[in-house]
Amino acid sequence: LLTLDNAVFSAYLFYATLAILKTLVCANVVIPLFRVTGHVFLVPEDYSAFSTSATKGSKTASSRIDTLRRMVANDLENIIPFAILGLLYVCIQPPAAIAVWHFRVHVGFRFLHTFAYALGMQPTRFLCFLPASLVNFSMAAQILRAVATL
Question: What span, in angstroms and rounded, lies between the C-alpha atoms of 69 and 26?
Answer without folding.
Answer: 9
